[in-house]
């Protein structure tokens, strides 16, 4: 709803707020997955550039917005406060003094208190439109923002420890488990099998890369890790954290070439607000096609989710490996007939 409300403001804003033909009629739209605002800007004569950190169908992505200067910038309020601050800095670095920076979002996303995220060097942010529980805030740039432009300025380093001592880990705003090791990820790391030298590991939904890093460390010399994620900023962090890994921007296994001896994943469950198992379903469906013979898929998720049932649709050997707090780890493989027979004789803990 926020993008249609911002579009409404573009179509109805008073003359004094409307860039004229002699002005720089270019607009940069940051992190808005919906088309409404960009369309309204184009209809009002702007050349529009869109930037997204996430890859999705028909949408390119990059770790940082393209350089300006643009006539105006629009920022869709992101979930994390730090990310909002970062995007508004990036916005202010892409216009000249006097140009407008807009922030738009919904009430339940925190737009009512979001004026404080504008950087020093912008005038007071005013709500220029309040409608359908959404707001459009606008402020004019008066001076360049304080931080240097670029993702590097937003790097946070924090110690993470999965049992063999703390290591310095790179995070950027908006990545999963910013500043810490997620407990579900930690549980899966505790269960990771050794991948032999020459073996291949895929980290599906790699984020900043802890699972790939731990799997590589446990594997002695020589396994190769591929880190797949649709978030260009997460992969920029992974580049720092797992420099030997191969990073792939993607949303599914079509983006990578097998075979893999091990696929590890703490998969995305919340694609937007309503819970969604779509990415896990696709992972489970496609994994047997990219696993090497005898290869395994190792997944951690909340135990209340029907992950074992999903795994049972594609794999004939599914084992629960660990249970801790609300989380559970499953290993799944396409077993050979003799392994299935052995399992039926009770030598394995569970077969579905
Ligand atoms: C629960 S986080 C886990 C991150 C990391 N593995 C960790 O344990 O810290 C899930 C990750 O999946 C990524 N993701 C979201 N949609 C995806 C998709 N369709 N395919 C693959 N990864 C996806 C997110 O960007 C996020 O980094």
Can you tell me about this structure?
The protein has 352 residues and is of the alpha/beta class. The chain folds into 2 domains: 150 residues, Vaccinia Virus protein VP39 (Rossmann fold); 190 residues, Vaccinia Virus protein VP39 (Rossmann fold), CATH 3.40.50. It is built from 9 helices and 15 strands. Strands 11-10-9-12-13-15-14 form a 7-stranded mixed beta sheet, sandwiched between helices. The chain is elongated. The chain starts with a helix and ends in an 8-residue tail after the last helix. The model has no long low-confidence stretch (mean pLDDT 92). Bound molecules: S-adenosylmethionine.
CATH class of the largest domain: Alpha Beta
Question: What order do the SSEs take from the amino end to the carboxyl end, as H and E?
Answer: HEHEEHEEEEEHEHEHEEHEHEEH
CATH superfamily label of the largest domain:
Vaccinia Virus protein VP39
Number of strands: 15
Strand order of the largest sheet: 11-10-9-12-13-15-14
**Helical proportion?**
25-40%
Quaternary: single chain
- Residue-averaged pLDDT: 92
What coarse outline follows from CA principal-axis ratios?
elongated
Give me the number of helical elements: 9
State Rg: 23 Å
Strand content: 25-35%
How many domains make up the 3D coordinates?
2
List the helices and strands and how they pair.
Layout: H1 2-12, E1 26-30, H2 36-43, E2 47-51, E3 72-76, H3 81-92, E4 100-106, E5 126-131, E6 134-140, E7 156-160, E8 167-171, H4 183-191, E9 200-204, H5 210-218, E10 224-229, H6 232-241, E11 246-249, E12 260-265, H7 278-290, E13 291-302, H8 307-314, E14 317-324, E15 327-333, H9 337-344
